[in-house]
Structures are given as structure tokens and as C-alpha cells.
Specification:
This protein has eight helices and twelve strands. It is α/β, with parallel strands linked by helices.
Length: 240
């Protein structure tokens, strides 16, 4: 299990205010909230990019006190997708994730369907394919927890669904936490949802129990949730 209770500030400006998070293998935890809610900061505090006040524990081990190489064997961060500026091959790019932990690059690339393209330049991939390469690099790291920051941003519908289906498979063997901008993807694929606003946790629970009133309060919209083919979907409208 991954457990965190963290606060973080830039100078006197508080970004996170004692936010608690709990995630475990077998579920996909989605972190949602409006811009500036502290979602990305929360992930960066958990993986050690930022140094928070509070605690972060994975399977009982204190991640905050660990050195980066030790932490890299346990937890992986997948940042928001931005196309690379250097023409590594796909295989070389994924090998970067395996450098410290000596993970299995071929297995990672096969998992995301990119093994046959391993010798192509990473710059030749589409945005959706590059996101899959980022996930492959995380898999090659071999850690037991993967945190992803908006893994479907800027992707077309097809690739966004491919990424979410992949995460849905990976949750069976790893702890998966994803910041999601698309509320319908969160409702459709997440098992649990953590809602942030203004650096504070507003709501946490089963995605099936998330009510429109919570989203109305957090996002300032009118909303209703409908079920289509067994999936919950948000139908929003602006307040007047």
C-alpha cells in the first residue's frame, strides 16, 4: 500500500495542506480537481521530486528519507507528455528507465506494443505513441508503484482509451495513481477518486459513489452523471 500525508509550500504560499492519499494494488486511483488544486504537486511530493512536510510510505517503508536510487526501485513518476528534443531510438529512450534498476526493456516495450518499433527514432512517434513509450520506460524501471501526471492530455480519443485500458491492466500488478483532467475517463476507469481543491482534499471514495454535487462545488458547474453501457459519464453545463 502507498500512504501519504503531505503539506507543501513555496515560501509563504501553501500549495498542499495536509493532503492524505491511500492507494493499493488492484485499483486505479484518479486524482482530480481544477487547475491549481495541487494535483501535480502532490505526485511530485510523493515521488520525491519535491520535499514535502509529512510522510510518504510504501509497503511500510519511508520514501521521504530514501536516496533517489533507492526510491527509484520502488516508485516511478510519469510526467505530462512533451515530445523529446533528442533523437534517441525508442529502445534507448526506454532503457533510461532501466538504467538504475536493470529492468527488462523488451518486456516493457512488448507490453505497450512498441517492441517492433524499437529501432525507430522516438521523435517519429505520435503523441499517443510517445505516451505509451513513457509508460514503457516506467515499466522498465520495475517499481511497484507508478504515478502518472495527466497521461491522456493532448491525446486523441483512440490513444486516450488505449492508455486507460493499459493502466486498467497494470493495476492488477502495480499500484497506479493518475492525475486525470478528463472527468469522464476518471468516472469510467477509476476505482477510487481523490478530489482536490485549493490544496486540500475535498472528497475521496469509490468512483461509483462520486455524486454530481461534489463536482458542482469543486468546478463551479451544473452537473449530472448518467450511466451508458455500464460506465458513468458526466454531463456538465455552466451555471447561469
Amino acid at each position: 500500500m502507498l500512504e501519504a500525508k503531505v503539506s507543501f509550500a513555496y515560501g509563504e504560499r501553501e500549495i498542499l495542506k495536509g493532503v492524505e492519499l491511500r492507494a493499493e494494488r488492484g485499483e486505479l486511483l484518479a486524482v482530480i480537481g481544477p487547475n491549481g488544486a495541487g494535483k501535480s504537486t502532490l505526485l511530485k511530493c510523493i515521488v520525491g521530486i519535491l520535499k514535502p512536510e509529512g510522510s510518504v510510505r510504501l509497503e511500510g517503508m519511508d520514501l521521504v528519507s530514501m536516496k533517489p536510487p533507492e526510491r527509484a526501485r520502488l516508485i516511478t513518476y510519469v510526467p505530462q507528455s512533451s515530445l523529446p528534443q533528442f533523437a534517441f531510438t525508442v529502445e534507448e529512450f526506454v532503457e533510461m528507465g532501466a538504467y538504475i534498476t536493470r529492468g527488462n526493456v523488451r518486456e516493457a516495450l512488448e507490453r505497450v506494443g512498441l517492441w517492433e518499433r524499437r529501432r525507430e527514432k522516438i521523435t517519429s512517434l505520435s503523441g499517443g505513441e510517445f505516451q505509451l513509450a513513457l509508460i514503457a520506460r516506467a515499466l522498465a524501471q520495475g517499481s511497484s508503484a507508478i504515478l502518472l501526471d495527466e497521461p491522456t492530455s493532448h491525446l486523441d480519443v483512440n490513444h486516450a482509451l488505449m492508455v486507460m485500458e493499459l493502466l486498467n491492466e497494470l493495476k492488477r500488478e502495480k499500484i497506479i495513481v493518475a492525475v486525470l483532467h478528463d472527468l469522464n475517463l476518471a468516472l469510467s476507469y477509476a476505482d477510487r477518486v481523490l478530489v482536490l481543491r485549493g490544496g486540500e482534499k475535498v472528497w475521496e471514495g469509490s468512483a461509483k459513489k462520486l455524486e454530481p454535487g461534489v463536482l458542482e462545488e469543486v468546478y463551479g458547474i451544473r452537473a449530472k452523471i448518467v450511466e451508458v453501457d455500464g460506465k458513468r459519464l458526466l454531463v456538465p453545463s455552466l451555471k447561469v
